[in-house]
Amino acid sequence: MDEVITTVNQSLDDATHVFGDAVKTVSWPALLTRIAVAVLIVAAGIVILWLLRKVLNRIFKRKCGDGQSESQRKTLHTLLSSLLSFSVYFAMICMALSALGVNVESLLAVAGVGGVAVGFGCQTLVKDFVSGLFLWLEGHLKVGDVVTVGGLTGTVERMSLRTTTLRATNGNLYTIPNGDIRTVVNMTRDFRFALVDVTVAHNQDYQAAITALQQAMAVLDEQEKDLEEVPKVVGITACDRFAATIRIECKCDVEVCWDVERKIRQAALECLKKEGFAL
Predict the structure, then answer these.
(1) Pairing relationship of beta strands 173-177 and 146-149 according to DSSP bridges
(2) pLDDT of 193-209, one tens digit each?
(3) Model pTM greater than 0.70?
(4) Contact 143, 75 (CB under 8 A)
(5) CA-to-CA distance for 222 and 108, rounded, in angstroms?
(6) What span, in angstroms and rounded, lies between the C-alpha atoms of 229 and 216?
(7) Which residues are bridge partners to 184 per DSSP?
(8) 148, 187 Cβ separation under 8 angstroms
(9) Most confident of 5-9, 123-127, 177-181
């Protein structure tokens, strides 16, 4: 036991001597200078990024020509801001490492040699970047669009090269990797159809209900300016053992679609109730 303790103490003494010799050989002024330069590079990078973002914000606050919409400008702004941040951070890290004496070229060469291995680990990240780029180039998504992506519905609040952020009507915030976006249902392009279904119980005059709804829709068209046309009573589109479903549709602007649906639904229910139909 004493021999083991003696051996351990001897090893600790040897390690202490080696560490002490290493500390003595370090050129502390040179090391502190390198650290100071690296800190200055990081600070300068942060300031430069802040200034570039200010310039970018000022450019995009101006009204762009060529018929570019506000949502398109916001989308391009978020994508460029994301790309700018990645570029500045990458340059800042490389310069800081170089100032500390790290051979950045060797690191990049090692990264190139191990590119295949790294590629397997980063293939999802690369897929997100490429998908985000094509989503913007092809115009499938814009900031402000109401979309359904992967079963999630909300308003596009932000788009970056890697992720798309949706805000649901209940306030939930969804962050979706661009590489996972397969199908996009965009509900804010050109126009929409306001669709309203009302039910009428069986053993009643369905044609009389349809006629009453047509008259109510004509009155609603005279009262509301948001309607581009008289809401059309399509007729019975479904039925079950309890009631028949009558559909009403109306072509309208995207921005007022949900408001138009509420107004049509209210007018239809009031009409059927007034005429004495059981719902």
Answers:
(1) unpaired
(2) 888 999 888 888 889 99
(3) no
(4) yes
(5) 70
(6) 14
(7) 149
(8) yes
(9) 177-181
Q: Is residue 41 packed enough to be buried (19+ CB in 10 Å), middle (13-18) or exposed (0-12)?
A: buried
pLDDT higher than 80, residue 139:
no
Question: Are residues 88 and 124 in contact, defined by beta-carbon separation less than 8 angstroms?
Answer: no
Residue identified by tokens 């079950």 is 240
**For position 15, what pLDDT does the model report?**
46
User: What pLDDT, on a 0 to 100 scale, did the predictor assign at position 223?
Assistant: 84
Query: Pseudo-torsion of CA 252, 258, 264, 268, nearest 10°?
Result: 150
pLDDT tens-digit profile of 36-58?
888 888 888 888 888 888 888 88
Distance CA 135, CA 147 (A): 13
